[in-house]
Design brief:
iron-sulfur; 12 strands; metal-binding; lyase; alpha+beta; 4Fe-4S; 49% helix; 21 helices
Length: 536
Amino acid sequence: MKTYGLRDIIGPIMVGPSSSHTAGALRIASIARKLFGEQPQQVAFTLYGSFAATGSGHGTDKALVAGILGLETDDPRVADSFALAEAAGVTVDIAWDTATDVAHPNTVDIRCEDGNGRTLEMRGVSIGGGAAVIRRINGIDVDITGEHTSVVVHQHDVRGVLAHIAGVLAERGINIANANLHRTAKRGDAYTVLETDSDVSPDVREHLLDHPDIINARVVPPMMAGDGEEAPVPDDAEEAFARWDYASGEELLALCEREGVTIAQAFRAREEALCAKQGVAPGIDAYLDRVLEVMGNAATEPLENPQPSVGGLIGGEAAKLHASLEGAGTRQRLVDPLAARAAQYALATLETNGRMGVIVATPTAGSAGVLPGVLLALRDERGFTHDELREGILTAAGLGYLIARNASVSGAEGGSQAEVGSAAAMAAAAAVALAGGAPDRCLAAGANVMMSLLGLVCDPVGGLVEVPCQKRNATAASVALVSAQIAFAGVQNLISFDEAVAVMDEVGRGLPPELRETALGGIAKAPSACAFCAGC
């Protein structure tokens, strides 16, 4: 099971519109580039499942090409990746396979080739929130999560090769966290995939290749928990992480009581321990500062300079709401200023997302408006400070981690309840924490939201994260605030946070495929939606 950190839940910072279909796809292609060892001259992508059904509207094709070119998830040039590939002399072929059944809805096969006929074939899966897993390399099943530095060795399956690999790493003080051998047949081709506890220097590859039965070797850097700067691993790193880790809401409450801390403090300590275990500097406050900066820009730019989205379905809604509230009389202001401002910021963030601007996935891009909508509105209307907003984000991350760990935050797996519902639960908990509520009230607020939004389907018109996603973000921000107020008042829940997460997961997996981000049901099948798509 993947060990989720701060940047997995509050992040990635990325170009929109979809964390699983854009950022996750980019990371898969980036790993393919690293495994290939250079930029390929020809690359073919075959997309399956939800990737195939909605990938064009989500910019999945652009993201895959961007990853092959070595771009990062937050690079604004992702939207121009096809032009960049043409300028670089990279030939790209895209196939959309909606017929073949695959184990995961966000699956892509990548074939890279250089000018000499050398090839790499790889299958990757985007598991939600921008995270990716590699499932197959050159026809051999593997499992590369990106959680640790991975050393991928292509070899002949003969005696002595594994000993050579282990010896090379041991000589350089590199500890192996996990090791798996994947082979076609005895004495056939094989891949050894090792995950290490520390960075692996480039010269290790050359020493591995000294063995005549090693065909190739590549080092794949991890998707780091911290800021990427290497730090010494303390001797008690595992014990420290075990002290602060938790697997359920019940365990989180027990942890907070035992240590005398808030959820934000507990999650901060867990993040510091996770980074220490992985040998990287945490850089928590610097990251949170950037998160708040990006959130602020994404939530305000469309108010001043409205732009149409890539799909053309949204653009200007936040400015219209703002203008209507500014000029409205008392009887025309149907919501209070706090909820109105939260809705305005949420609408604006989804406009930024829809035009492939830079946003923060919280926990996904499709739900990126809820948390900033609530937090920035609380800042403006209730006077919470920058430092207090940091604590709110850490509280949100503390709950979001549990949802991602024990259920899913992917619309393709669990519907919009898994994305917008999770974001609203996180925002509700953050609001309670900012108001001074105890950890149990934060969890109660999250449970309130999940019960209120249970069964919310994911049905993007034309496969675009625009309609109905934008308005769902805005209304979910209000649901978060109401749920937070109810919990803060001390109203008890029959259903616990952990039970609400489990039920949400069960309901999500029971939704038919048409209602899980395929654009084949729900609002996406309404006559007006079909008419729009027919005209594209």
